């Protein structure tokens, strides 16, 4: 599974509370943050590398997630969120992690002073850092959708893309908008350490699309879908058991609690490590064919059923990711025109997240982006699930061109978007009320 089918531990993420770093002086806040991160995470990378060698299981990313920084900075007399962002980035560099998440705000019902200041600082913060990731929760099934924040974030996404246009607008690839964000999610760009989390914990994200595809391909061509689902469950059990073993061993060495294992199948741009490839193994000509949403729904459900039998502490997002730039099969489907933006949106009703790592023309109006975000928030709100938008307006580029990030972020063809205006709707502002099923106390 490891050598032939790209089985790996996608991430080990140290979740760390920074609530005790709050102070009225931003310089003191930064000093406390740096000291705490470097204290708790000093051995994270070294110990993970040791386990990787001992068990011969690749651990692709080592990450840190922290308390939403909007909360940490707003007690300062003169908040400087960019300075805090640079401190986080510096601490992440010192301990050698790939990403540090938690430059975040939770604004589903409205914004505080700290929330507004953090959101407005995002473009500059992502310009001046390398490892930092940012997220903003705009909606929940209990609160509804904060449409004022939706429109504001659309403008922030455009501005962030503009600030980093010399690097194919990579800043937008490290910024995500959520509905029903998960406070124990180990995956970037949406990872943060939530209010109910302990002082620190180790959360693990597993992977293995290539393993699932290989198992399906070993079935006879006339195996029915019940048998396919059972096979996926069995493989998910093995993948999860592997992730739990590594996670608990690492947490013990770090002398911190084991948190959760996230069951999500996370693809990479590597050949054979694609969620889209699983659809083809099931019998679809390509991702985007009619039946893709049904195939994804079955995959998600089977992964969860198999994985939950292997662990008592499942959390995060859990299911299957469909990031276009990070999945070789999705990239190919988008290039061929098999996969459209509308089909991606339909698939998000049953996947782990939503419109993820999708490149669009750089001249797309902010109001259109706000409409995209609002649609995804609605899918999450109504279905009581996590949805998200990580969209990349490729400044200076249009349909038919590509953006290139390299590494895990991959590359993406720029996809066409609906040219009809959303301006009149999104400019109304206010809050879309929560659905009636939110009244379930």
Structural write-up:
The chain has helices at 2-5, 26-40, 44-55, 69-73, 81-95, 113-127, 147-163, 209-217, 225-254, 275-282, 292-308, 328-336, 341-347, 366-383, 423-426; strands spanning 9-16, 59-66, 99-106, 132-140, 144-146, 175-179, 200-206, 258-262, 355-361, 387-394, 402-406, 410-413, 431-432. It is an alpha/beta fold and 441 residues long. The strands form two sheets. Strands 1, 2, 3, 4, 5, 6, 7, 8, 9, 10 and 13 form an eleven-stranded mixed beta sheet that branches. A two-stranded antiparallel ribbon has the order 11-12. The longest helix has 30 residues, at 225-254. It starts with a helix and ends in a 9-residue tail after the last strand.
* Unreliable residue stretches: none
Level-1 CATH class name of the largest domain:
Alpha Beta
Largest sheet report: 11 strands, mixed
The structural domain count equals: 2
Shape: globular
Q: How much helix, percentage-wise, in residues?
A: 40-55%
